[in-house]
Fold:
Amino acid sequence: MSSAVRKVVLIDSGGANIASLQFALSRLGCQGVLSADAGFIRAAGHVILPGVGAAAAAMSRLREAGLDTLITSLSQPVLGICLGMQLMFDRSEESDTDCLGIMKGEAHLIPATPGRPVPHMGWNQVHAANDSPMLSGITSGAYFYFVHSYAIGKVPSMTATVNYEQPFTAIAEQDNFVATQFHPEKSGPAGAQLLKNFLART
Amino acid sequence: MAGLLDIPFCVAGGLRTIKDAEVVLNYGADKISINTPALSKPSLIDELARRFGSQCVVAGIDSLVQDGQYRVHQFTGDSGKTRHSGRLTQDWVTEVQNRGAGEIVLNCMNQDGVRNGYDIEQLAAVRDISRVPLIASGGAGTKQHFSDVFQQAMVDGALAASVFHTGAINIGDLKQFLATQSIEVRP
Structure:
């Protein structure tokens, strides 16, 4: 048995704030290693596609590194967070960007209204729409932290929703791919539990 | 700090360049708040928003009521240097949003530190012209003050420091109180 700390590979798509995710993983006894190396990513037990940044910039960075086709072909558990989630869908309205197309649906700009400032930044309740092992040990209606201007409406892969004047997809799941619009690494104990649930997937 | 925190945090003060911002963000901060440097060089807001996204850029605004008008002040970190920036608060609120700020923290200086309640009138006026989240600052003294500012000025958040640091208000008690007033707060 190796005593080495378990590694989780974070795909380098050029976004900021990788440190928060690395700290969250280290609180769970794992090491988050940032990489754009195809072989290293393919060999990982768990892969995270993080996301703080802009869709077009992230997609062109992934394409230049040949990582777009790599990601869609991965068979181990893959978690997309925030922009990383949106990249897993067909398309984003942000700079009209074609995305990875793993899940069906598009990200659209949230229209600002007097009761709904954009970007949406804050703690909102997430409710299960389907039974999901990702929400195991988490009460339906637990609060998670959101930061985004674009959102995905109701899609076939949706397993949990959030309401920000209108319902959006909070968690989507398809085969080995999982995506969260919120930031589990910033969502207190509920977020830590969700990351634990992801790491428990095989 | 970032290694200990599993909730979002914002770094304010002393950030003047993209490089400064990059350093604190790479250490795990979620947002950066800029105040005086943005008044000296407004394009800094555009640059920060382009590089890191609007969600990252908080405009801190210190506003003082003078001659019946709300005026933006700068160098407020040092009482000897504090002075009027030459800008009206409402104009600056509109400009920072147009330049890409994703959140506004409005510190109402007349109320700051006196614990007499938030400046509801001013915050409501700024709320009307803010399409990004607005955080109230200055004046919290009682739990009722928080309830008032959420319900009357429709702000997205209320900032307080001294009442929490001194223990005058317990954060858990405050959240419970606000929940009884039908204000949504994370338990």
Q: What stands out?
A: The CA atoms of residues 14 and 20 of chain B lie 8 Å apart. The interface with chain A takes residues 2-3, 5-8, 22, 25-30, 52-56, 102-103, 130-134, 154, 156-157, 186-187 of chain B (CB under 8 Å).
